[in-house]
Amino acid sequence: MHTTIKRWGPVILYALIITTISSIPSPQLPPGGFENSDKIAHLVLYSGAGFVARRAVASTPAAIAMTSAYGAFDELYQNLIPGRNCSASDWIADTVGGIVGVLLYIWYEKSRRRQTP
């Protein structure tokens, strides 16, 4: 039980954070001074999601699929929030962010193993 919570707790917490942010009824999120700044926010936010997803599952394709599927759910959910909308380009940014996060986790694990005697 403890191992399950340790592996999946961060995934659930991260999903709750994303859902909470997505629940804010405002088209101005995130604040940015340039066009498509929201895509960078999606990429960064979902990089973290990809990182914790890869930590939870031993499969890189599964972690990417989980993150992408959650991004699709999140985009559909935003359609229900006043002032928000569902965007395929945001979902693509979510998916790319998930891939970046998964790759960062792989890099982290490899560098951690090299440092361990």
Structural write-up:
The chain has 117 residues and is mostly helical. The protein has one domain (2-22, 37-115). The protein is 75% helix and 0% strand. The protein is built from 4 helices and no strands. The chain has helices spanning 2-22, 37-56, 60-78, 88-115. Helix 2 packs across helix 3 (60-78). The longest helix has 28 residues, at 88-115. The protein is globular and about 50 Å long.
Write the layout of secondary structure elements.
Elements: H1 2-22, H2 37-56, H3 60-78, H4 88-115
Shape: globular
Main beta sheet, described? none
Secondary structure tally: strands: 0
Terminal Cα span? 30 Å
Compact description:
With 117 residues, the chain is mostly helical. It has helices at residues 2-22, 37-56, 60-78, 88-115.
Protein traits:
single chain; 117 residues; mainly alpha; 0% strand
